[in-house]
């Protein structure tokens, strides 16, 4: 089965062609980061309009690169939620219409299921069951994954998502959006022991997260060390970036380990933008090796938003016989636990 995947839930236009026999044939991404940079965050209306501009040329490119034409496609899978409603509607209307024109099936895909399954696009993918840590700009969730669509949320953030915390801390240090990669880069120059930030909620039992206290702690540290320009000096900013990243990474690592112990699963997968963080990968690998468990993740380009994960997740569900009718429905908020399970 050959599927065109379309991702437009936020500020990235991602498209890909996935073939169930031959694997991923082509993928393209256009990031709107520059468009939103002067506003310090994503402007929904600008995002929708830019998806309209970029979808046709990107789809032309992946069709060419994959050696396919519309008639070769068995289905179009598009992100139906969660995300920004206007941005979702662009991809959904476009995907649904293309499928109609090509006479093939269409399916709306859950964005977080796309992230969750992205590591399975890599060589030697892990087998079910496993624990998934979903860490993106809008979500921080630990999920017990028994199979596709068999999801039980074990714990999630009570306030900010991990990616959101990175983005806000970056703003405090006058770094550009998205803040995660910027903090990670600056942290490389940081002196490890200068600051010790709190690891929120690790002393309590349970698998919930909270990053708002850490955010306040970061802001207080920045203010305390600020010079006349309102910012600490360069070295101090790097030390703060290091301490912040370390606190987030340690918190996530402790909770992942706890989730594995609680479920008895051998495998952890990490997915979503923050799973691209090298320090998180390093620390998880070390911590899990000690208890003979392992961690899997996607290549960095498939950790952040992309079309390949949507084509892949869609293809798994389409192969099981699922598809949507002609109505175009999008869901800006959408609980992953309500998705139908495959094979039951
Ligand atoms: O999954 P994603 O691309 O979009 C959402 O579905 O939200 O995640 C974006 C988030 C942003 O908050 C960004 O700062 C964060 O992922 N991120 C990172 C890194 N790369 C992206 N955070 C920490 N370290 C990174 N290397
Ligand atoms: Zn995402």
Bound ligand species: 5'-O-[(R)-(carboxyoxy)(hydroxy)phosphoryl]adenosine, zinc ion
**Binned strand content:** 15-25%
How many whole angstroms does the radius of gyration measure?
20 Å
Q: What distance lies between the first and last C-alpha atoms, to the nearest angstrom?
A: 21 Å
State the main characteristics.
about 350 residues; alpha/beta; five-stranded mixed β-sheet; 10 helices; 10 strands
In brief:
Helix content is 41%, strand content 19%. The protein has helices at 33-37, 44-65, 85-102, 111-117, 162-172, 179-187, 212-224, 234-263, 278-290, 307-319, and strands at residues 2-7, 12-19, 23-31, 75-81, 105-110, 130-135, 140-147, 150-156, 267-271, 294-297. Helix 4 crosses helix 10.
Describe this entry's structure for a reader.
- The chain is an alpha/beta fold.
- The chain is built from 10 helices and 10 strands.
- It has helices at 33-37, 44-65, 85-102, 111-117, 162-172, 179-187, 212-224, 234-263, 278-290, 307-319, and strands at 2-7, 12-19, 23-31, 75-81, 105-110, 130-135, 140-147, 150-156, 267-271, 294-297.
- The chain has a 5-stranded mixed β-sheet with strand order 3-2-1-4-5, with helices on both faces. Strands 8-7-6-9-10 form a 5-stranded mixed β-sheet, sandwiched between helices.
- Helix 2 (44-65) packs parallel to helix 3, helix 5 packs across helix 6 (179-187) and helix 5 (162-172) packs parallel to helix 7 (212-224).
- The two termini are 21 Å apart.
- The model has no long low-confidence stretch (mean pLDDT 97).
- Residues 111, 115, 136, 272, 305 line the site of zinc ion.
